[in-house]
Amino acid sequence: MKLSGNKDNSFYHILEKARKYCAYQERSHFETHKKLITLGLPLNEVGKALAQLITENFLNEERFARTFARGHFKIKKWGKKKIIFELKKRKINDYCIKKALEEIDSKEYILTLEQIISKKQKEIKNTEDFSYKAKIASYCITRGYEYHEVWDSLQNI
Fold first, then answer.
1. Are residues 110 and 79 in the same domain?
2. Please, is 45 exposed, middle or buried when counting C-beta atoms within 10 Å of its C-beta (0-12, 13-18, 19+)?
3. I need a surface site. Which of 46, 50, 83, 90 has the fewest CB within 10 A?
4. How confident is the model at residue 3 (pLDDT cuts 50, 70, 90)?
């Protein structure tokens, strides 16, 4: 039996591609929605496909958010503010963002921030007091660390 040419079969063909897309790594609903459209699924069928992927547990927003936060903190050394920003950019709801931030241990968070500060201190040539600390603080803040956490850690070093 030939599958091509039938609208219903093309839906299942695209759904199978979406399953593989989601199985490869955790995806958000927003990313998957965009991918389904890119694969050529009509807009009126995207919701049906998303519902099927959620039912089959290929998509789970909380699982995605937790994995995203854990990975970007441990691997890329991002701060909470940058993680929150990126999750919101992917249209993750506040509940899932809150759950994602629970993946980050507060002691490990401060230790990582101090390691980033220590590494940046070695890179900066001019150690003039205020501009030296300001450059380090600016770097950490752009990585998503909270202003007060950065300055507290700078005072301790």
1. no
2. middle
3. 90
4. very low
Give the residue numbers spanning the domain of 21. 7-59
In a domain, 143, yes or no: yes
Q: What is the mean pLDDT of residues 140-155?
A: 93
User: What CA–CA distance (Å, rounded) separates 19 from 82?
Assistant: 29
Q: What is the pLDDT of residues 69-89, one digit of tens each?
A: 999 999 999 999 999 999 999
Secondary structure, 3-state, the chain: CCCCCCHHHHHHHHHHHHHHHHHHCCCCHHHHHHHHHHCCCCHHHHHHHHHHHHHCCCCCHHHHHHHHHHHHHHCCCCCHHHHHHHHHHCCCCHHHHHHHHCCCCHHHHHHHHHHHHHHHHHHCCCCCHHHHHHHHHHHHHHCCCCHHHHHHHHHHC
